[in-house]
Amino acid sequence: MTTLQKSVTAIAAKNHPKNHSKTIQYGTAGFRTVATDLDHVVFRMGVLSVLRSLKCNCQTIGLMITASHNKEEDNGVKIVDPMGEMLEQSWEELATELANVGDDKLDTVINDIVEKQNIDLSKTGSVFVGQDTRPSSDSLARAALTGIAALSGIVKDYGIVTTPMLHFFVTCQNTNEAYGKATADSYIKKISSAFLKLRGDTYEKGKYKPEIQFDGANGVGSVIIKDFAKAIGDALKININNDRVNELGVLNKDCGAEYVKTQQKPPKGVAVVANARCVSVDGDADRVVYYYVDADDKFHLLDGDRIATLVAGYIMEVVKKTGLEVNLGLVQTAYANGSSTAYISEKLNVPVACVSTGVKNLHRKAVEFDIGIYFEANGHGTITFSDKVKDKLDRELTNPSSTKSQLAAMKELALLINLINETVGDALSDMLLVETVLHARGWNIQDWENTYEDLPNRLLKVIVKDRNVVETTDANRKCTSPAGVQDAIDEVVKKFKNGRSFIRASGTEDVVRVYAEADTQENADHLANLVKKIVEEMAGGINQ
Ligand SMILES: CC(=O)N[C@H]1[C@@H](OP(=O)(O)O)O[C@H](CO)[C@@H](O)[C@@H]1O
Ligand SMILES: [Mg+2]
Question: Which of 69, 108, 215, 462 has its CA 20 to 30 A from that of 280?
């Protein structure tokens, strides 16, 4: 049967009518805007996620209500594909179309998708729903549930969870629990027991001290970290700050990973203790950055590039010790600091690939390697392990000819795999991975920082009439439109030692971003401002 049993148009008009005519687009991170504009969009995404499930042989699809690091008044919705990855690109277009048509056209558009995608509506779709802690998330989650019910989908509503937990649950469900059980308890247990085994009985090692200051951005990260803290106990003392429950702070306001990374200063709500190792996560706990303030009150940021280099170096060493043939690679975007790229490719000898901005692009590339490590500079990333590597590891762990040290390394690698949430960047699992590597190396945060020196850099935003006039190629590193812009950028970059700069239209904000690097902070700022001027003059800036 290929026609709708119930009229979605009628349900929408009655319960979730479209109440504005603004166009909204499924962008880098799903739909994201002020929460009051989203009710009909989320209802429709409930519908679409059932269609997606039916298209994917009735496997479970995830639907997450969150606007991540954005303001508390914003919200958003994103759809998770069966293996925990982001929604397939061609469906992003269907999502955009479905979100924007009038209520009266809904049945037609849905029937159209059903026909073109060859979907069998007599089968039953399945959707997992999760939400962040925003005040608007509850009612939006209800809109999603109504949308799912409109197509008679089966639903499991997880309530407040981190985005990476929802990705984890979806993967567990669709692998028949090979990846774990699709419950919060199983998620916490899988990761924390791997962490405890890796840590062993000695919590303090060399210069490593098992204590961190944690900034939960007044979001779901501060809720779930408590479950980890309980499971981990003294192996790592986690001092939880910006905890919405105890302090009623506003989500992401002057705190969280995005604030710390872009403002380059410590978050409000965390007492400054000289040289203490501090961690900030974002509003849905898929990004993490580290920082510390030194004895001279100077702020030091250790971002996604630092996490990538730390874990790549360590995992490569462990892999070498196993004696297994494994191809390991690291994936970055053009925003990665040039020094981190040089360190990874020249010092660690790990191949580096550069892809367009957006976690989905990094993830897609990472899975091409046996072990793929990816992190955006903003702290969003993870490590993926191919089935080939996992099978090899299983086989070799029982191979009598493996040496004792090979076996120990293989056991360690197997535990690292369990510690990592491979489905998508997971701030809490990534944090425990960083803690594991620092502990294994006996390092404090300064030792980690001293591995290489970042090139000074500057990220600016330019407001233009239409950001879509800016088009890029070569993983965002070359601007192809408007004509002449790239030549102008090349001209100014040439004048700076270690100069590098590129522009691209943001996928999440109505701006063009300018990134610049150079030998000194003054030069990086100067270069960024010169390129900003080029954008203003040649790409329709409205700030002139
Ligand atoms: C420079 C920067 O940090 N860009 C971020 C930001 O995308 P833009 O397309 O640059 O707005 O949000 C994305 C989603 O969170 C993230 O993937 C990306 O890295
Ligand atoms: Mg996020």
Answer: 462
Is 513 annotated as contributing to ligand binding?
A: yes
Q: Which ligand is located closest to the Cα atom of residue 251?
A: 2
* Topology match between the domains 186-303 and 457-539: no
What totals of helices (H) and strands (E) does the chain contain, helices first?
A: 19, 19
How many residues are recorded in the chain?
A: 544
CATH class belonging to 186-303: alpha beta
pTM of structure = 0.95
d(CA 463, CA 475): 22
Percent of the chain with pLDDT over 70: 99
Fold type of domain 457-539: TATA-Binding Protein (3.30.310)
Q: Which residues line ligand 1 (CB under 6 A)?
A: 28-29, 68, 335, 357-359, 376, 378, 506-509, 513
ipTM over 0.85: yes
Q: State the average pLDDT over residues 481-502.
A: 98
Give the whole-angstrom CA distance, residue 136 versus residue 113: 29
Can you give the pLDDT at residue 2? 63
What do you get for the CA distance between the two ends of the chain, in Å? 58
User: Residue 144 carries which side chain, given as an amino acid letter?
Assistant: A
Domain 305-425 has CATH 3.40.120: yes
Cis? peptide before 482, omega within 30° of 0: yes
Q: Identify the CATH number of the domain defined by range 8-160.
A: 3.40.120.10
Residue 507 is labelled as binding a ligand: yes
Q: Which residue type sits at 72?
A: E
Q: Name the residue of 460, 506, 509 whose CB sits within 8 Å of the most ligand 1 atoms, as the mutation to test its pocket.
A: 506
Q: Look over the chain and give the mean of its residue pLDDT values, rounded to a whole number.
A: 96
**378 known member of a binding site:** yes
Amino acid 120 reads D
Compute φ and ψ for 236, nearest 5 degrees.
-155, 115
Tokens (6 digits) for 79? 């759809």
Q: Residues with catalytic annotation?
A: 68
Angle (CA) 247 131 223, round 5°: 35
Kindly list the domain boundaries of the chain, sorted by start residue. Answer: 8-160, 186-303, 305-425, 457-539
> 3-state class of 95 per DSSP?
helix
